[in-house]
Structure formats: structure tokens, C-alpha cells
Amino acid sequence: MTGQILRGLAVLIAIAGVIDPSINSMRRTQHPVAIVSSDAPADAQLADRIAREFASDFAVVRGPLAGAAAVVVAGDRLPNDIATFPASTPAFAVTHLSEVPAAHITAVRAPAAATIQSRVPLTAIVRVERGKGRSVEVSLQHAGLTIDRVTQSLTTDDERVSVNLTFVPTAEGPMPLSISAGFEDRSIRERADVLVNVDRREWTVLAFDRRPSWLSTFVRRALEDDSRFVVTSRVVTSRSVSTDTGQPPGSLDELPSLALFDAVVIGAPEELTDRDVAGLEAFLRRRGGAVCLLLDQQVPGPYERLLGVGAWATAGTSTPASIDVTGGDPVRLLATELAWPVQLPPGSSTLATSVPTAGDTSVSRPIVWSAPAGSGRIIASGALDAWRFRDSAPSAFDRFWRTLIADAAAASPRLVEIQLDQPLLATGEATGAGIVVRDASLAEPGTATTLKGTVSVVLETPSGLVPVRAWPDGAPGHFRATFNAPDSPGTYRLGVTGNGTRVDTPVVVTSTAVARPTPDERDLIAAWTSSRGGITVPSTRLLEVRDALDRALHSTQEHTTWYPMRSAWWIVVFALALGVEWWMRRRRGLV
What we know:
Elements: H1 2-19, E1 23-28, E2 32-37, H2 41-54, E3 59-62, E4 70-74, E5 91-95, E6 102-109, E7 113-115, E8 120-129, E9 135-142, E10 145-153, E11 158-167, E12 173-183, E13 189-199, E14 203-209, H3 214-224, E15 229-238, E16 241-245, H4 255-258, E17 263-267, H5 274-287, E18 290-294, H6 304-307, E19 312-325, E20 332-341, E21 349-355, E22 365-373, E23 376-381, H7 397-410, E24 416-420, E25 424-426, E26 430-437, H8 438-441, E27 455-461, E28 464-468, E29 470-472, E30 478-484, E31 490-498, E32 501-510, H9 522-531, E33 536-538, H10 542-553, E34 557-562, H11 569-587
Parallel strand pairs: 2-3, 2-4, 4-5, 5-33, 7-13, 14-15, 14-17, 17-18, 18-23, 25-32
Antiparallel strand pairs: 1-34, 6-8, 8-11, 9-10, 9-12, 12-13, 15-16, 19-20, 19-21, 21-22, 22-23, 24-26, 26-30, 27-28, 27-31, 29-30, 31-32
Helix pairs in contact: 1-11, 3-7
């Protein structure tokens, strides 16, 4: 009986194969969709969840796929391989959204180096979820002690706040700091560690006057009385006669000589020549230095090319007007003659404004302001006769100019500059360093090959010098180095020698893990998906992405014809049925 059944099955398979029946059905179009994420574990988990949710509706591929009909990014960071997708590929994103109140430090802006006894600013960017109606507390600690704390109220459930913190270092050397963020009850807190190197850097300043200027004279004296500044000056008193302090360059168009200074203070800027202005432009754009123009009268001249101001306004008052620092300490100047731009150039920022007096209906005027110029900054002062009131009780003339020029000079890069990716490391952790040798980067195009254009990099350890490989990185004078932290905790120094100039920077290695900020690129992700016709939603609204994918890919139900007998597996069943039936007949002696 069993043999007959097997033989009948084989016959049915053969008959069905000859007939080749078909089955019609409605099936959903399965478009290939790539689900990608960064290397962060939380992003990878979210990507896996999205892949599971979409598996029944799309041909999901976990990872980059060149031929994908659409791409979905999971998490708060763009993956490194995102560039593999053509610009025509529709893009969507699903970001994290916590189910409980949480505060995440997404970025910390801190100077790599600071001067002792100076106020050091830090900025923490904190993303707060589920915090509406509560307050987020951000604090700065050193050696377990809180040295600054800021509390900010929250008005929405998903909010990004920028918190400014400050501290004043009292000792030299690398200073590890910790920034923590959480709610006012301190039940949930996140931490990020940073390192600031505190030293006694002296700023080199060139004071250059084409004619004697009272304002420039008293600003220069204020800087000379401060040990943080090394002032070199040249005042042209008459034709071919000048009064020099130190060894100033003969003219402002000698960039190699001008590049030795962090900042240049110009008195009587209307006397500058076209060659002077060209030299200052090169100093600003290629050296990255700071130029401060001290106007004592508002008259036209080549210097206006540096400022880009279309029109000026002037005013004179019978009583001194108060000029206060914008958003800073109560530091002020007094002046009766003022000049300011009718409209500030693009990218400018106001440093000090005139405060309207009682009965004055005018608005605040930008008297001292700054604007970017290449990699440097230019500062202009329209407090024309502020020097006359330098000894008045409300005025802080010396402190105002020392602070202003110190900040500008501190922002100027050094002749050899080291920028560590991570100056605070755990043992064995890898990091990199960007190196700029200004001598090579200042060279005119086509002449950089006449310079050495090389650097020597070593890591100083108790057991000796460890060479670190550095290679050119794009522009002339730019290099890149990578190294691993030593296996023993401690403070080490990374030394760089370039074209005869040597600098070093500390590297602090700890035995414990270093807390890093959690990057948040949601705005970038939203802009990227929007440019490709997609949307960005939090993880709680995942169905919106599926619906948007349907619309973008035009997913439809289509008729599908299925030929079941065309499967190769029927050959296996057919052969197996006949083989078993033959074996059974042979055992019975029928064959």
C-alpha cells in the first residue's frame, strides 16, 4: 500500500510538472531599504529595532547598500558611511527620545590652554529630555570641589541649552576638570571630563603708529605696565624719523617679521598706506593674528578696506558717554566723541556699546566691535577721545584695553601649534594631534617647498623619548600625528619641533575611563534628510517613517503569479518517492 502511495505521488508530480499550474495573489512591493547607524551601542540597538519593525513591509538590509531605494538613519549621529548613498536616494531618520527625564552633555567648548590668574570660559551644550517644568543644573568641578554652578529652567520636553561656566586657575600645569549635568534634585547626572593647560604665556604685541596718537600712547602704556605683554612699538614722529621700543619691523608689509606677534595695535589708522593695509590683511588671513584699530578721528583712508564698513555715523556730547562691555564684567570707557558703523559688517560682534543717558531716546551704539578676517580677527574702536577720561573714577581705561587685547592675542595661534584631539586619556587609549607650522603655512603659493616643511614629534616619558610619526595633512605646514597613551597613568608631554621652533603640550593619562560628551547631530541629520525629501522623527513616532517610506517609494499591492511546480525541490521529492518505492518492491522480491 505504501509503495502505491509513493508511486502515485511521483505520477502526480510528473503530471503537475507537465500542466505547470499557476497561482495568482496580491503581494506588497518589497523595496530594498538600508538601515544604518553610527558605532554607538544605543544607535545600533535602535537600528536593529527599526529593521525588525520594517522587515514585513520592505526588503530591509542592515547596513549600507549601494542599490537601496531609501535609507533610514538610526540615532543622533550621522554614520561615517553615509556618503556611499547617492544624493537622489530618499533619506529618513529616527532619533532617540528617552522615556524618563534625562540630561545629556552633547558638547563642551574649552580652551586647550589658559593663562594663570585669568578668567577661563567654558561652554557646555546640554540636551534635556522629558524635563518640562524642571530645572537643569550644570556644575564645574576640580579635584572634587565645585568651582562654578549654573541652574536653568526648562520650558519644553526636548530642549537644548547652552551653559557658560568660568574658573580662575591659581597654579600652573594641566588642570583636569569635570562638568556634570542633571536635574535640581541631583538624582540623574551625566559627566564629561576636560583638560585645560595653565601656563604663563606672554603675548607679543606690536604697537605701530604712522603719526603720534594720544589714544594709542596711553593704550600702549597700559599694556607695558602689565607683565603678561611683551610690547614692541614704532611711532613715526616725522618723515624718516621714528621712536622705537624693541626691534619693530620696518613696515607692516613684512609678513615674516609681523608673524612673530600675536596682536598688532594700530594708532591713527587713517595714516596707513596701501602697502600697510596689504600687510595687515596677510597677517590676519594667513597668520591668524589680531589687529586692533584705535581711531582718534573718523576720516577716510585705505584702512577702511580692512573693516568693510559702508557708512559711518558720528556724535559729540557735552558730557562723557558711558561705553560698557557687552555681556561681560562692568568695565567701561568714557568718551565725548564717538564713531560707529551705520551697519555692522556680516559676522561682526559688538564688544562695547554706548549707553543712552537719561532723556536720550537713541539706541545703544556699537562703539567697539570685532569682525572675522580670514583665520584672524580685526577690532575697531570708535571711542575717539576715551584717553582724555582715563583717570575718571567711573572709567576703567587700562583694564578695558588690557582685557580686550589679551583676549584677542590669546586667540591668535602660535608659530607652531598643537591641537590634541583628546589631551585627557585612559591608559592605552589612542588619540591624534593636528600640528600647524606657521612658517610653512605663511609661505606664498609655490614657495613652500623652499622651507623645511617637516616636523619632529616625540612623546616624553620617564623612560625616554618615544618617536611619534607625523605626515602632511592637506595645506602646507599642516601635519597629523597619532599615538597611543602609555600604559602607566601620569602626566606626559608631546613635543613638536618645526623649522627651528619647539613647543610641547601636556598629555594626562588616567587609570580610569574618561567621560566624553555624547555628540548630538540631530539638527544636521534633520537638514540632511530634508534635503533628500525625507523626515526626522523621534523613536516614539516610528510608524510615521514607515508611512513616509510608502509614499516616497510608491509601495503598492500588485498581482503576482506563482508557479509552484517550477521549484527545483520537486525533483528531489519525485526522485525520493520513486527511489523508496523501488527499494520497497525489491525487498519484497518484486524486482
